[in-house]
Design brief:
Distance between the termini: 50 Å
Number of strands: 14
Structural class: alpha/beta
Number of helices: 13
Strand content: 15-25%
Oligomer: single chain
Number of domains: 1
Largest sheet: 8 strands, parallel, barrel
Shape: globular
CATH class: Alpha Beta
Order of helices and strands: HEEEHEHEHEEHEHHEHEEEHEHEHHH
Bound molecules: flavin mononucleotide
C-alpha cells in the first residue's frame, strides 16, 4: 500500500486516471488529444484510412481521450475540404472503424460535432451560409438568417449525428461551441441579433446550444458522454468574459459530462471588474466543480500541463504537441525529456502517422513544418 501511495505521489497529475460519474466510465489518464481538422478524409464525407491511422497512433501513444476533427452534422455545415461528415447513416461503417481503432488501445473515443454556420464556405456547400442572423462575421461572407424550422432541424441533426456516433461505438461527443462556428454564432451578440426566442438576451442566445444538449441526450443512451467546447472570449462574435460567465453558469443546469475551454494559450487571461485571472481559472470558478473541466492552449511540456491543472482543470488538452509527438503523454513521466518543439521535418511528421495532405495543411501553421 505504501509503495502505491509513493508511486501516485510522484505521478504527474495528468497521468492519473479519472472516472466519469456517467456509467462509471474510466479513463486511463487526463491527457486529451484536442480536436484537429486534418483534411485527410474523402470529399463525400466518408472517413479515410489516413484519418483513422493518425488518430489510432495517438490512442496507441497513450492519450486517455482522443477527440476527432470537427465533423459536420449537416451537409451545409462543412467547413473544410477533406472533412468527414456525420450527416448520414451511410457514414456509420467508416465511423465504426475509427472508433474501434481508437478504443482498441484503451483510449476513449470522442467525436467533435460541428456546423460551420457563416464559416461553411459556399464553394464547399453550394449554398449561402446560414447563421443566427444576417452578418459578416466571416469577413467578406454574408450569412442568411435561419428560420425557426431550420433551427429546429439543425438541432435535430446534431442529435442524429450523436446517435450515429454512438451506434458506431464512440464513447461520446463534444459539441463545438468555440472558435466562431454556428453554435458560437448563436452565443455571440455580434452574430445573433434575433428578437425571437433564440436571441435578444443571454438565456435566449444560449437556447440553441442548450436545445442541442437536450436533443443529444434524447437520441443517445444514458451511458453516452457529452461535452461542450467554448471560447472564453471571441472578438468576431462579440463574446466577452461576461458572456462566457453566463454561459458557463447556464451550463450548470445542462446534463453534461465535461466542459472544454479553448484558451489558445493557457497562460493568458482577462480582467472582469477589479480582478484578473487566467481563462481556465475564471472557468473553474464559474463552474464550481460541477462539470469536469478540460483546458487547452499552448501546452507543450510537463510543466505546462501541471500549470493547466493547477489552474483548476481536470484534464489537459493538446493539439500541436500531439501532432509532433504521437505518444505525448509519455513526455509527462518522471525523468522524461521535454518534447522537442517545431519546426518538424516532413519525415518526422510522416513517422508520426500524418499523410502528405495533413503535412501540407500544417504548412499553414507558421513555423510548424521545416525543410527536410
Ligand atoms: C491543425 C489544427 C486543426 C484544428 N482543428 C480544430 C477543430 O477541428 N476543432 C477545434 O475545436 N479546434 C481545432 N483546432 C484547435 C485546437 O484544438 C487547439 O485548441 C489549438 O491548436 C491550441 O492548442 P495547442 O496549443 O495545443 O495546439 C485545431 C488546431 C490545429 C493545429
Amino acid at each position: 500500500m505504501m509503495s502505491v501511495v509513493r508511486v501516485l505521489g510522484c505521478m504527474h497529475p495528468a497521468l492519473q486516471p479519472f472516472v466519469f460519474k456517467r456509467g462509471g466510465i474510466k479513463v486511463q489518464n487526463r491527457c486529451v488529444l484536442a480536436a484537429m481538422t486534418n483534411k485527410q478524409s474523402h470529399e463525400n464525407g466518408v472517413v479515410s484510412d489516413d484519418e483513422v491511422r493518425w488518430l489510432e497512433a495517438r490512442a496507441k501513444g497513450g492519450f486517455g481521450i482522443v477527440c476527432t476533427a470537427a465533423t459536420h452534422v449537416e451537409l451545409d455545415g462543412k467547413g473544410w475540404n477533406g472533412a468527414f461528415g456525420t450527416f448520414s447513416d451511410d457514414f456509420i461503417p467508416g465511423l465504426r472503424k475509427m472508433a474501434k481503432s481508437i478504443k482498441t488501445h484503451g483510449a476513449l473515443a470522442i467525436a467533435q460535432l460541428f456546423h460551420g454556420g457563416v464559416r461553411a464556405p459556399e464553394d464547399l456547400t453550394n449554398v449561402q451560409p446560414k447563421s443566427a442572423s444576417v452578418h459578416t462575421v466571416a469577413h467578406d461572407v454574408t450569412s442568411r438568417a435561419m428560420d425557426e424550422a431550420e433551427i429546429l432541424a439543425t438541432i435535430r441533426a446534431f442529435g442524429e449525428a450523436a446517435r450515429r456516433c454512438e451506434e458506431a461505438g464512440f464513447d461520446g461527443v463534444e459539441l463545438h461551441g468555440a472558435h466562431g462556428y454556428l453554435i458560437s454564432q448563436f452565443l455571440g451578440p455580434k452574430s445573433n441579433f434575433r428578437a425571437d426566442a433564440w436571441g435578444g438576451s443571454a438565456p435566449a442566445r444560449h437556447r440553441f446550444l442548450a436545445s442541442i444538449v437536450n436533443e443529444v441526450r434524447r437520441q443517445t443512451t444514458a451511458k453516452f458522454l457529452l461535452g461542450v467546447r467554448l471560447s472564453p472570449i471571441q472578438a468576431a462574435t462579440g463574446t466577452t468574459l461576461e458572456h462566457s460567465k453566463l454561459t458557463v453558469e447556464a451550463s450548470q443546469d445542462w446534463d453534461l459530462d465535461f466542459l472544454h475551454i479553448s484558451c489558445w494559450d493557457i497562460t493568458e487571461g482577462a480582467s472582469m471588474g477589479e480582478r484578473h485571472q487566467r481563462f481556465t481559472e475564471w472557468c473553474a470558478e464559474w463552474n464550481a466543480g460541477r462539470h469536469p473541466l478540460i483546458t487547452t492552449g499552448g501546452i507543450w511540456t510537463a510543466k505546462d500541463a501541471e500549470n493547466g491543472m493547477a489552474q483548476g482543470a481536470d484534464f489537459v488538452g493538446v493539439a500541436r504537441a500531439g501532432i509532433g509527438h504521437h505518444n505525448w503523454p509519455a513526455c509527462l513521466q518522471e525523468g522524461a525529456t521535454a518534447p522537442p518543439r517545431p519546426p518538424f521535418s516532413r519525415s518526422h511528421l510522416s513517422h508520426q502517422a500524418l499523410s502528405p495532405t495533413f503535412i501540407e495543411y500544417m504548412r499553414r501553421w507558421d513555423g510548424f513544418v521545416g525543410e527536410d
